[in-house]
Write a structure and sequence with these properties.
21 helices; six-stranded parallel sheet; alpha/beta
């Protein structure tokens, strides 16, 4: 067996080449898993009927892929073919598709070819596991490689899971190769949520811009503005009409004031002119009085000169004195006459003031009248100008329609968003790049002490585990189990059921001895275990003796399970009556969480298509459902009689915990040969019920407390 590793690796390589698989994974390749569906339980993608590898990263992105725009990292959980997504937080509207990096590579060949010191794998490849002794669970804690055989429901998975947890808690690094939900959590990051919200806001603005562009497709802003101006002009003209009335009133008052000022000026001028002679006499009186004062002064001087002493020329001066006295007397007479005919100085001043005030009043009144007139004429001209562009009835209808639809406000909003669009486009690219790198570090660190997976780990070749526990070895190829055991340093335990569906090999390779040995056979068969008796007699194999689950086709009689329960618990044959199966009706009436097991992939695809709206249902074949348990299971016996799939049928009928529905034609059951799957159903004497037009009938009412209705 020195070359078993090389031989097994070549066999796996041959199989991989024929099936179109790959031996390596390209971590930069993204796959479009489809559009995310919104359900009551959150976002989901229906992947039932497809083979999904190991999820490495999941993002919500657009049709261009995660590197073609925003890519929101999201936690995911793959359960029974449905990928359930955690709440991703704010998501840009274009991120409506689920993209994933998936490791779909077959690591068996690489692991086998690069195995170093692997004594456990060598012993198992030689068909010589270590001796089994003591409690089966203790085998998980003992050095060496050992086998565990157990019928479905005997607790193999529970035993391995419990042991793996205890070993990990004790500090050992454990690989548990068992059917499990794939979970891919992401860490909570406030910075990432902020970036996502900003992208949502920008995308919302972009969507709003596109929506506004659509709403404004038939709107002409310039035409609306022109109509609005004409309507506004009429409103302004109406307002100016009111101002014109007031301006006209002001003008009338100003005109009346001007007329009164003119009349007052005429009166003041008349009075002033009538007092012209009096003013002249007053002036004359003032002039004569001044002259009289000069004469009196001269007389006084002469009197003093003549009366003081005698001198030569005295007589001449006396003559002058007499003459001036006569002149003085004449002036006095004239002053008295002028004074009597003159007006008073106060009267003259009052007349001058009245005339000046009248002139000033006239000037102000004329100015006010001119301004008021100019205002009236200006308003008349403005109103005439505004009235010249009166809107038509069509303009008014167009304007009213635009206002009813809110188009002007929408246009203002569009202009503002368009103004910001270039800036937001540049900012969006920066945010998308930042979100990408935040997503790269968003994956939560896993507990590396316990690696629970259904596929060989995709880590670096050469990594090792202290303990390797393999479940469902009855359906895994010997090459896969040996590759896993080769990773164990101290302990390896392989559990399975020889009656499980065998590994599938393409028909074209079934004549290849190496492929048949390493890829088409199980490690149990490799060690000579094909039946329960073989397991009991094998020194390296434990046999679990725990009673299997109570829902068993062989343990059912008359609709009763192993413990005598009826109806709700047990096996129920749904009779189609020879009619075509109404898949949609049956799917719609199945209890929540039911599994539908079809005989082959074609039938499974038909059921999957009917169950597109029921993501709570698991759909597949016995091979894809092996290792899983459900409260209720429906096995399709109409699409195929399972005659050549006896192992698969045996596995399918052991998947139910409470209720096993067998969809079949009662007439075909009556004619079935003993030992065939249909013959086994007939021999079980299960309760037979017609399917009816509404699908699966509800269980009959019962007073037995042990009955569980699905």
């Amino acid at each position: 067996m020195a070359n078993w590793r090389h031989e097994a690796a070549e066999a796996v390589g041959t199989e991989t080449a024929h099936t179109g698989g790959t031996a390596r994974v390209d971590g930069d390749t993204w796959q479009d898993l489809g559009a995310a569906r919104t359900t009551d339980d959150g976002l989901a993608v229906d992947l039932r009927g497809t083979s999904v590898g190991t999820l490495l990263d999941v993002r919500l992105a657009g049709a261009e892929g995660p590197r073609g725009g925003a890519a929101v990292p999201v936690g995911a959980r793959l359960r029974h073919g449905v990928l359930w997504l955690d709440d991703p937080g704010p998501v840009p509207p274009e991120c409506d598709r689920v993209w994933a990096r998936i490791d779909a590579a077959d690591h068996r060949a690489a692991l086998l070819a690069d195995l170093g010191f692997a004594p456990l794998a060598d012993r198992l490849a030689a068909g010589k596991p270590d001796r089994a002794h003591g409690d089966p669970q203790r085998a998980c804690f003992l050095p060496g490689v050992r086998l565990i055989w157990g019928a479905p429901g005997t607790g193999k998975t529970t035993l391995l899971t419990r042991a793996a947890t205890e070993l990990a808690e004790a500090g050992h690094r454990v690989l548990l190769l068992s059917r499990a939900e794939q979970t891919l959590p992401v860490t909570v990051d406030a910075a990432r949520a902020s970036v996502q919200q900003q992208l949502v806001d920008i995308a919302g603005a972009g969507q709003r811009l596109a929506e506004l562009r659509r709403l404004l497709a038939d709107f002409d802003p310039s035409a609306f503005a022109a109509v609005q101006r004409r309507i506004d002009d009429q409103d302004r003209a109406d307002a100016l009409e009111a101002k014109l009335v007031e301006a006209q009133r002001v003008y009338d008052v100003a005109a009346a004031d001007l007329a009164q000022a003119r009349q007052e000026l005429r009166r003041a001028r008349d009075e002033w002119e009538q007092a012209e002679d009096g003013r002249r006499r007053l002036t004359e009186s003032r002039a004569l009085s001044a002259k009289l004062a000069d004469v009196d002064a001269e007389l006084a001087r002469l009197h003093l000169k003549v009366e003081r002493r005698r001198y030569r020329g005295r007589s001449r001066d006396r003559t002058s004195l007499y003459r001036m006295e006569r002149e003085r007397d004449a002036l006095r007479q004239r002053v008295e006459t002028a004074t009597d005919a003159a007006i008073s100085a106060e009267r003259a001043s009052a007349l001058d003031t009245a005339l000046s005030d009248a002139h000033h009043w006239l000037d102000e009144a004329a100015r006010d009248e001119s301004e008021a007139y100019t205002r009236v004429e200006s308003l008349h001209a403005k109103i005439a100008q505004l009235r010249s562009a009166k809107p038509s009835e069509q303009d008014l209808r167009f304007h009213a329609d635009c206002l009813d639809r809110g188009l002007p406000e929408l246009q203002d909003e569009y202009d503002e968003l368009a103004r910001l669009s270039d800036e937001q486009a540049a900012r969006r690219g920066q945010l998308e790049e930042r979100l990408w790198w935040l997503g790269e570090r968003a994956r939560a660190d896993r507990d590396e002490r316990l690696v629970h997976t259904d596929r060989l780990p995709h880590g670096d070749v050469g990594e090792a585990f202290d303990v390797v526990l393999v479940d469902d070895a009855g359906t895994r190829s010997a090459a896969e189990v040996l590759a896993a055991v080769g990773l164990a340093k101290h302990t390896a335990v392989i559990a399975g059921d020889a009656g499980s569906p065998q590994p599938w090999v393409v028909p074209s390779l079934r004549d290849d001895a190496a492929v048949r040995r390493w890829c088409g056979a199980t490690v149990l068969a490799h060690c000579g275990i094909r039946t329960e008796a073989d397991a009991r007699s094998h020194p390296g194999c434990y046999v679990l003796t725990t009673p299997p689950r109570r829902i068993s086709l062989d343990a059912t009689r008359g609709g009763r399970g192993a413990e005598g329960t009826t109806d709700g618990d047990g096996v129920i044959v749904l009779d189609t009556g020879g009619e075509a199966v109404r898949h949609e009706d049956i799917v719609a009436s199945l209890p929540r969480g039911t599994a539908i097991i079809a005989p082959h992939r074609t039938a499974a695809a038909t059921w999957s298509a009917a169950a597109r709206q029921r993501l709570d249902l698991a759909v597949g074949t016995a091979r894809t459902m092996h290792g899983a348990e459900f409260d209720a299971v429906l096995v399709d016996l109409v699409s195929d009689d399972w005659r050549v799939r006896t192992r698969a049928f045996a596995s399918a009928t052991t998947r139910a915990r409470c209720t096993l529905y067998l969809l079949a034609d009662a007439a075909a059951l009556a004619e079935a040969d003993p030992g065939t799957p249909l013959g086994r159903v007939r021999a079980a004497q299960a309760d037979v019920r017609p399917v009816g037009r509404i699908g699966v009938p509800a269980p009959r009412a019962t007073a037995e407390t042990g009955v569980m209705t699905p």
